[in-house]
């Protein structure tokens, strides 16, 4: 077999392949054997029909077609390996010559990963939020805990803001009561904003047994988005009483003996959260700067597939779970279809660039993923999927997705390398040291995943290459 590679552009090549006919022998034998098992000829047992009879009865052309279809993937893969190409997706194949007994010649056009020159990233400098916890934030955290331990006491008076009312609801659209528009015994805190718009005004001032009607746009159900006439009846009113903020509350709501200890613990928790947010912010901004520095040609077909995959996932998975269609989603977002498609394309470009650059950096820095890192990543992915680690691991193995998980962690390690080389300062002008963060690789992996978004199209291209 002879092959030649012609570069059509930085992301696409054409392979020209010539195969001497004798190299098709195995595929021809397989073609005759397959046809033998599929056809019946009077006078011959099934599977024992001579090749010449098959040629006479069904045509040599049918045998050649079967043999060529069997042989093409093998010779294409050999040419790819010989040319040391990093192909993406399935090739567009064109048979240019087929001479029985002499030669098979064909071309294959396919997308390839572009060659990327990793820029000097040592000069990257980003600014992040300072790690500050205010007394107001501590007060808010303690107050939220206090709210969880609030008690309710029935009262015989008109309902007011902050009270908990038990209500019955009935919604009508165009004068008809909706099948899913009736609810009884609903508990609602006035002012929480957790139910329909207008309900706070309707129930405020009502005593038990009181009733009111208001108009509101339905947030869910069969008539979502439509204006409905809603009748609300208050069946009970209860006041909410918050515990006193003292040492007794600290002992009731936590493992601490004093309110001061509880507040200190809240401060530490807030500090840890802000430290995580600060690290994530640093990684996101460093990645943005890295993407600006590198020139990355994007394969057109890969981009088109990526955009289509993102749109499909949004329409048929995410929006479907929320009971929305694309039109309603765009209305809620205040976007036109053109704006949505432009944003989707920009996100897809960013995701592909992120993968290409970080994969190249993984190769350049010779980064490896150890079992502990892979296990930690698998555990987090399992938690976010709602599956047990064992179930998730089994699904990953059965789906052949282990290389994909390894790639995710490797790209996280690559980003961590860039972040370590960058200068990160906070809004107070202080240098931020992220080296003490034990979870830096996993945090960087999460940042990379967020930047890549739905990268199924890209991952499928890799799977197709592996299958070839």
From TrEMBL:
Residues 162-215 form the PPIase FKBP-type domain. It comes from the Bacteria. Gene3D superfamilies: 3.10.50.40, Trigger factor ribosome-binding domain (3.30.70.1050), Trigger factor, C-terminal domain (1.10.3120.10). It catalyses: [protein]-peptidylproline (omega=180) = [protein]-peptidylproline (omega=0). Residues 458-468 have a biased composition (Basic and acidic residues). Consists of 3 domains; the N-terminus binds the ribosome, the middle domain has PPIase activity, while the C-terminus has intrinsic chaperone activity on its own. This is Trigger factor. It comes from Streptomyces mutomycini.
């Amino acid at each position: 077999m002879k092959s030649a590679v012609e570069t059509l552009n930085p992301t696409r090549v054409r392979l020209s392949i010539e195969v001497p006919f004798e190299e098709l022998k195995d595929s021809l034998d397989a073609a005759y054997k397959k046809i033998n098992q599929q056809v019946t000829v009077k006078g011959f047992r099934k599977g024992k029909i001579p090749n010449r009879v098959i040629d006479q009865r069904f045509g040599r052309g049918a045998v050649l077609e079967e043999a060529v279809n069997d042989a093409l993937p093998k010779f294409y893969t050999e040419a790819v390996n010989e040319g040391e190409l990093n192909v993406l997706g399935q090739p567009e194949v064109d048979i240019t010559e087929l001479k029985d007994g002499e030669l098979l010649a064909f071309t294959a056009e396919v997308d390839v990963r572009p060659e990327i020159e990793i820029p000097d990233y040592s000069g990257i400098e980003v600014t992040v939020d300072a790690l500050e916890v205010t007394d107001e934030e501590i007060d808010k955290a303690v107050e939220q805990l206090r709210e969880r331990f609030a008690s309710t006491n029935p009262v015989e008076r008109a309902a007011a803001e902050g009270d908990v009312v038990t209500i019955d609801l009935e919604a009508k659209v165009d004068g008809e009561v909706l099948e899913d528009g009736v609810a009884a015994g609903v508990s609602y805190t006035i002012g929480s904003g957790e139910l329909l718009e207008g309900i706070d005004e309707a129930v405020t001032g009502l005593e038990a047994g009181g009733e009111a009607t208001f108009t509101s746009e339905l947030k869910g159900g069969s008539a979502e988005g439509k204006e409905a006439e809603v009748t609300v009846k208050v069946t009970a009113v209860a006041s909410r009483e918050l515990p006193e903020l003292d040492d007794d509350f600290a002992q009731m709501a936590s493992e601490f003996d004093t309110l001061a200890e509880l507040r200190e613990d809240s401060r530490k928790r807030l500090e840890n959260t802000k430290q995580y947010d600060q690290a994530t912010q640093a990684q996101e901004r460093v990645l943005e700067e890295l993407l600006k520095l590198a020139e990355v040609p994007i394969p057109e077909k890969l981009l088109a597939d990526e955009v289509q995959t993102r749109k499909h996932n949004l329409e048929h998975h995410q929006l479907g779970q929320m009971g929305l269609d694309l039109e309603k989603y765009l209305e809620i977002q205040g976007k036109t279809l053109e704006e949505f498609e432009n944003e989707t394309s920009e996100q897809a470009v960013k995701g592909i660039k992120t993968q290409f650059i970080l994969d190249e950096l993984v190769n350049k820095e010779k980064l490896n993923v150890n079992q502990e890192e892979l296990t930690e990543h698998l555990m987090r992915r399992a938690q976010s999927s709602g599956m047990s680690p064992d179930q998730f691991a089994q699904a990953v193995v059965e789906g052949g997705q282990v290389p994909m998980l390894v790639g995710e962690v490797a790209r996280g390690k690559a980003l961590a390398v860039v972040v370590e080389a960058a200068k990160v300062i906070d809004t107070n002008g202080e240098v931020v040291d992220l080296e003490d963060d034990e979870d830096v690789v996993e945090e960087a992996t999460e940042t990379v995943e967020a930047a890549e978004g739905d990268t199924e199209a890209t991952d499928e291209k890799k799977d197709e290459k592996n299958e070839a």
